[in-house]
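go over whats below:
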Amino acid sequence: MTPFETKQKQERAVLAGVHTGTGSPLKDTTEESMAELARLAETAGAETVGTLVQNRPTPENATYLGEGKLEELRIACESLEATLVIFDSELSPIQLKNLEKDLGLRVIDRSMLILDIFARHALSREGKIQVELAQLKYMLPRLTGIGTQLSRLGAGIGTRGPGETRLETDRRHIRRRIHHLQEELSEVKKHRDLLRSGRKNDQAVTVALAGYTNAGKSTLLNILTGADVLSEDKLFATLDPTVRGLTLEDGRKLLLIDTVGFIRKLPHHLVEAFKSTLEEISLADVILHVADGSNPECSSQIEVVNGILAELGAGAKPVVLALNKSDACPTDAEAPFPGDNAAKTLRISARTGTGLEALLSAIADVAPGKKRPVSLKIPFSAGSVLSALHENHPVLAEEYEADGTLITVLLNAQEYNRYKEFLTESEDS
């Protein structure tokens, strides 16, 4: 018997949306949001075979699209042999139910698509718990609309879950599962809090890398720290947070924390489920906002990230805005967005290394505990002080004089006060 492999047939997706023209360009369906939806579908493994956008003041309550446009969509799906329809905005339970009935196809929305991608990319126990929790909370009110999907084994985009398990339609079962996952997440959060306490004890400066998905955060982390974090030209390639360390020129320890990328219309349940992970951003000393400076939508993407940072309570944190992928921009290109809440804004290229020294310098300037050169004269009788300075602080210069050792070291404000009695006359003045 000849051996053979079975492969799941690639889904053929038609994308649909309603452009109201009255809402925020970050929440409304636009050419940009539909292009992004196509990339999301590609990341999930689907082939986009057609798109349809209706212009109307508000989506139709029962079917999202108007009657004529819905019929046009049904005919297009038949002629294109589509197996899936993906809507750019979140659908209500009744809209989801009616659309599947009228189209005779599986229907998912942007939120379900993003949750599916997260389910595929979650590797750690915490990540899998967070994704499943978000999926269950999202699906619970939609059981009436997608009950037939939940009663069968996960097959296809929008039905994938952690471990490819079947979701039961029983509301009580799902609520029990949600409660169980919340308890598990609480235990994981305690462990994460312990890790944060350890970082504080080490007096390390924490820098959270935040930004729009696929802006190059993981590539930047790799080049700065020599890490081997997965970096792909895909949306949400990185899901689980990664911590790597480096040392600044003044001796300060820096911990860089890579976090999940943001995106417009990010599902609310996903933000809620990932709060313990996203706390890394709100509790960091500095936020390194990485944006794709080569993207025509860079300005709106920065706006999306700033909005989510404010929602997480991190809007007042010191921010360094790094406009990445400068190697893909014209040499005379201006910054597409000044970064009104950024302490410093600069162009870099994580791929070529351009601007990385300036980036570290910018982070050093805004991070707490900044050190400056200080000249001290240590008497020969205070040998233990001299030893402590050598052991704990970068020494820039040292020479011996008749009454002691003249040493120049890098100190922060607190350390400056500690060694104040040894200041030289020129330093003291």
Notes: The chain has 15 helices and 13 strands. The longest helix spans residues 171-201. The two ends are 92 Å apart (CA to CA). The longest strand covers residues 47-55.
